[in-house]
Structure to design on (614 residues):
């Protein structure tokens, strides 16, 4: 949700910033821009609507020489995507340029006040108010840029990660954050800043995660200085990044999404590693072991998440309720945070977020903590906000996910939730030890089962050609396959822009059945489980109304094979493990349909990977 990057140092500022923007493009690609301060103190701002490649074209004949610079890739909130609304924004006198990720809630009040002082605005954004306010304070108080930023941020309500540069100061960048991420990379005589560490991973592994309401003063040739909004100097914690450049490249695949789908045997292996011991009989998740009491005494578990993570959360409910006999509620974080929730210290709240930065999930986690609940985070991004703002938690360890449509993070989240459910069941004694061991042993083989499912790739690619131009799809499942249906429908919507609805198969007859005809394919997830006979009836109901059916079934299925138009077989596994393997054919189906339609699967329109605004 907007990406910002900054650089000061001996390297080629323009090249480093553009490369950084490409890495952050997953956060938004409505427009891109760059501000460069050259050695003579001139401030140059170039910005265009569209992707970073448009900005590169635009800058081809421009002077890009610089000592420091900041850059931005935008996901529009206030004001349509346009050259004018693109960042960086600059102060009316052209003295400052600023990039911003977040939303300023009181921008209208601040804007009105500045207009009364004669200030003229160029754009429709909330961001422009920040740069105008900072410059106004700077001139009025005749103070340094850092002091003006500090005073301005004390007046601002909302979320922000900002970076500001000043004409005549090719050696300084001032940055600040609240509720939007910002990380600083400390190199050898050079300093980077960005929304995440991906823009500078090849230059330095030494990073400082700026905390809420902190201001960083980055000055070439001087050590980094961090102040709080009330002007106290903060202690600087340098941590070492565990990220490699190969994780950020496509590795021979045409798209990150396909790479990430095919990586799943490895990512699941990484996710499981060390977490099942004694040949499958013992679950070992440190965040769980360290908080045994909290989970043993929990009277209820509430899971909060958004998007794909919410689908994983729903599976978490099925898993935990089934294995641990604890009531579980699943809430959209955006609803939960404003629902006046009832929570106390006997509740455990699980916050799931791939990025660890989703604004609603983060806010929900904070509220739950304030109300006394024990909050456990499940994230992929080490050092992100949710792991830092929760009482305890665990990582899914699937490596950086770049494709905007989540794939390997979903299966990683489901895997961790499965292990968590098994671990809690073991602690609470709600499941037979032999059963835990049986499932645990199968979990160890999940990477091989996933490898087998990926062999369906060519079949699914051919199948996708038949349905590329369908205008609507229905995805149906029951029990553990219902959240899989929701996730399958979401994947198709996100990247192919085909309307798709996920539904509990039995509920279909209360509405969606009216839509069924030969034009609308139904994807039915129907592995062998305790609801198999029930879903066979639903398959028949669709067929009886002339619908076309793509069914995901267990290897050797003969009943649905005779009814459905197409079947995709997956290996037989214990019921609770089927979602991991049944979701993979759906990822591939949506990928190929989107490719057939010529869509940009890694950067689908209007979406962003990390949603740091409400
Ligand atoms: C965005 C992404 C989705 C993701 C959701 C929640 O909408 O496009 O892929 O599932 O945010 O993100 P999180 O990082 O919290 O899992």
């Amino acid at each position: 949700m907007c990406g910002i990057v900054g650089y000061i140092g001996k390297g080629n500022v323009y090249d480093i910033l553009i490369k950084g923007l490409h890495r952050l493009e997953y956060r938004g690609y409505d427009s891109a821009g760059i501000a460069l301060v050259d050695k003579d103190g001139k401030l140059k701002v170039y910005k265009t609507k569209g992707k970073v490649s448009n900005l590169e074209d635009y800058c081809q004949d421009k002077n890009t020489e610089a000592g420091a610079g900041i850059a931005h890739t935008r996901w529009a909130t206030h004001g349509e995507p346009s050259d004018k609304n693109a960042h960086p924004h600059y102060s009316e006198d052209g003295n400052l340029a600023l990039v911003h990720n977040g939303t300023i809630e009181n921008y209208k009040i601040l804007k009105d006040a500045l207009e009364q002082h004669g200030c003229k605005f160029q754009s429709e954004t909330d961001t422009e108010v920040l740069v105008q306010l900072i410059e106004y304070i700077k001139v009025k108080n005749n103070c340094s840029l850092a002091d003006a930023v500090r005073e301005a941020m004390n007046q601002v309500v909302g979320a922000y990660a900002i970076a500001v540069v000043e004409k005549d100061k090719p050696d300084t960048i001032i940055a600040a954050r609240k509720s939007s991420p910002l990380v600083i990379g400390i190199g050898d005589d050079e300093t980077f800043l960005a929304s995440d560490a991906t823009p500078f991973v090849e230059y330095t592994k030494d990073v400082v995660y700026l905390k809420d309401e902190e201001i960083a003063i980055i000055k070439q040739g001087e050590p980094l200085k961090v102040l709080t909004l009330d002007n106290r100097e903060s202690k600087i914690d340098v941590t070492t990044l565990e990220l490699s450049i190969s994780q950020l490249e496509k590795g021979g695949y045409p798209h990150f999404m396909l790479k990430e789908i095919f990586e799943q045997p490895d990512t699941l292996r990484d996710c499981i590693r060390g977490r099942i011991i004694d040949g499958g009989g013992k679950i070992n998740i440190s965040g769980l072991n360290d908080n045994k009491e909290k989970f043993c005494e929990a009277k209820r578990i509430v899971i909060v998440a958004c998007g794909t993570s919410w689908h994983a959360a729903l599976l978490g409910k099925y898993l935990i309720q089934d294995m641990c006999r604890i009531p579980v509620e699943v809430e959209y974080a955006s609803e939960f945070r404003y629902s006046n929730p009832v929570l106390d210290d006997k509740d455990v709240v699980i916050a799931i977020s791939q990025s660890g930065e989703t604004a609603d999930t983060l806010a929900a986690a904070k509220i739950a903590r304030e109300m006394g609940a024990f909050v456990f985070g499940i994230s992929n991004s080490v050092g992100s906000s949710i792991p830092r703002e929760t009482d305890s938690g665990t990582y899914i360890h699937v490596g950086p996910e770049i494709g905007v449509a989540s794939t390997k993070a979903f299966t990683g989240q489901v895997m961790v939730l499965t292990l968590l459910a098994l671990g809690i069941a073991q602690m609470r004694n709600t499941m037979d030890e032999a059963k835990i061991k049986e499932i645990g042993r199968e979990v160890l083989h999940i990477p091989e089962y996933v490898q087998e499912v990926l062999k369906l790739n060519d079949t699914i690619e051919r199948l996708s050609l038949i349905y590329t131009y369908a205008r609507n799809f229905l995805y149906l499942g029951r029990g553990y396959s219902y959240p899989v249906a929701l996730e399958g429908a979401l994947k198709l919507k996100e990247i192919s822009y085909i309307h798709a609805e996920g539904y509990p198969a039995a509920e279909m007859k209360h509405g969606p059945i009216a839509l069924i005809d030969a034009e609308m394919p139904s994807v039915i997830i129907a592995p062998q489980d305790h609801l198999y006979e029930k879903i066979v009836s639903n398959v028949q109901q669709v067929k009886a109304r002339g619908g076309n059916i793509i069914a995901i079934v267990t290897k050797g299925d003969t009943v649905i094979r005779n009814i459905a138009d197409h079947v995709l077989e997956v290996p037989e596994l214990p019921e609770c493990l089927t979602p991991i393997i049944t979701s993979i054919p759906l990822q591939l189906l949506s990928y190929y349909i989107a490719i057939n339609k010529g869509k940009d699967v890694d950067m689908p329109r209007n979406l962003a990977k990390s949603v740091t605004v409400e």
